[in-house]
Amino acid sequence: MKKMTCAAFAALLLASTNLSAVAQDHAGHGSHGNAGQAVVKAGPIAISGAFIRAMVPGAKVGGGYIKLDNKGGEADRLVAATSPAAKRVEIHEMTMENDVMKMRQLKDGIDLPAGGTVELKPGGMHLMFMDVIKPFKKGDTVPVTLQFQKAGTVDVTFKVGAAGASSMEHQH
Ligand SMILES: [Cu+2]
């Protein structure tokens, strides 16, 4: 009886060791996500390159950019985004109209065709952070929850780059 108890205890110990190893592994992945470099997945959608431009003093809004790679066989749609760092996050598109840069809200979100890659980048589509609580500074990280029509919601950490940065990779 005593021997069995010992074996059970050993098995328990082994199991808990394995569990903590798994937990640490996950924590490691999480910290990569926090660095804003790793690819975050929402179902078949791979999300990468999340960054926000630092805000100039006095600005109330900030622009966020991201790459969405739909590796699935079905089209999906980015329908909304939220962040505790801003009162509201809208999906916008920048277009040229009669030589004037205009910004419009994409109320239906962004279509993500099956097998296609959609990039939100400066001069094009972007996430607009409205009424930002505390101006984004270079080096900050901003938590954002993206909502997809089919893939559901996913948390992504955006890294704040320089005010004129076109991406985290091509920063001057
Ligand atoms: Cu905008």
From TrEMBL:
Keywords: Signal. Residues 1-23 form the signal peptide. It comes from the Bacteria. Pfam families: PCuAC (PF04314). Gene3D superfamilies: PCu(A)C copper chaperone. This is Copper(I)-binding protein. It comes from Phyllobacterium leguminum.
